[in-house]
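The freezer alarm interrupted the setup, so I double-checked each line after restarting. Inputs confirmed:
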Amino acid sequence: MKKLINRPEDVVVEELQGIAYAHGDLVKVHYNPNFIVRADAPIKGKVGVISGGGSGHEPMHGGFVGMGMLDAACPGAVFTSPTPDQMLEATKAVSGGAGVLHIVKNYTGDVMNFEMAADLGGSEGIEVEAVVTNDDVAVQDSLYTAGRRGVGITVLAEKISGAAAEQMRSLKEVADICRKVNAQGRSMGMALTSCIVPHAGKPTFDLPEDEMEIGIGIHGEPGRTRMKLKSADEITEMLMEPVIDDLPFKSGDNALLFVNGMGGTPLIELYVIYRKAYQIAEKHGLKVVRNLVGSYITSLEMAGTSITMLKVDDDLVKLWDAPVKTPGLRWGA
Amino acid sequence: MPISRNDVLAWLKAVAQVLAENREYLVQLDSAIGDADHGANMDRGFQSIMGKMDEINDKDIGTIFKTAAMTLISTVGGASGPLYGTFFLQAGTKTAGKMELTIQEWAVVLEAALAGIVMRGKAELNDKTMVDALTPAVEALKKAVGDGKFQSEALAICAEAARQGMEATIPLVARKGRASYLGERSAGHQDPGATSSYLMLKTAAEIWKNA
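Predicted 3D structure, all chains:
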């Protein structure tokens, strides 16, 4: 394993210390329990928006804390859900009297820990709503499984819900918008290489030089199928077609197209993917009115990409365009 | 002889050691069908319980289990944190104020702890989870106790049933947890959660053999 780390067990805390030094103007870092919170939290009368998850997906979630997006983020160990005590403390820290929204990615651990935080009480009369994101079309949705994973749509849901909260909309309205984004968004990802979890020290799965995994998640969990490597255009088709079919997106729909890097793929390749994805969207009669290209929800050093499509209306576009000032996403402010 | 408060403390210490020794093994199992963190998470959780030993040294079994539960909930994360946390929370509820447990009482405790895991994780038998090791273990223990087996023998029967349940997860297709994302590809691998559950019960059988 070749990594820029000191000791595997110190990675998360040392990352938090780095974030505190780098972005002290935007965020404060709280330790034991660990969470990153907006420097100006709590904001009176504003719904607090919180997310959390395992570390290793940077900039998500900690990089999205700041004006117009998240009020706090709870980082777990690498690829491990954070714990209920973090969620409770973060909830209290951002509560401005208008309630708190928890944005939870649909993973067994994340969902259980957020539920446990609610069960343990202690949120001291703060009204909390939780929205679970589950946009990954690579996973068969079934009552008998853990269901679809929350992936790329989470980034868009955090931005758009954060903007709605910034406009002082009510908890119910902010939660409804978050649910709407999740309901109207679909994603699918692929990997060229595995990632290496620091405490494991070796690749999570072995992938021969000439093969790829289709339908991967964001934790180095292998995908649904493995096959010989194909061209960027062919891969983009294999991701875009299931995403478009699933919602389904219909001719004339306006969409936000998000091409995400998994951590080890350069921007030059993401634009090659975006080019083809845009063309496929056009071919289906979809109008790409907004986009995001870059590595925003990653899986350590995994090489690969995921594509997220969100069907948007005027309200969602306005919320997307609203000012945001976070370490990882910043415009209009 | 019943299982004393000190036996319970000795069991937790031994489990911490066994999980530390099996950290890489559990990580390896989890790499195949999950996200390669089970060994590290369990080790971190039980090491944290070791850090609380001074607080619970002179406490009743219920307090010991509840402290273990809250420690696991706040340090393990993932799915194992809430699941094993709930396991020990339920065990703590059943043992509140008790300084020792008969083997009959231990069977009741283990059954309640398993019910806690099922309630939290909503897993059923054959979903390829820790429930697959714990369910046959609880059934076997209840039967052994009903048959009037000695404590050491009943605990050994319980551990053996857990081992068989753990091995029976190998051909299963996962229907819960991260392994379920693999669908058919999850078959052929032993479930890491069932493995850690087996390790705990095996350790109980060894540590309480002469209790």
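Quick read of the result. The longest strand of chain B covers residues 3-4.
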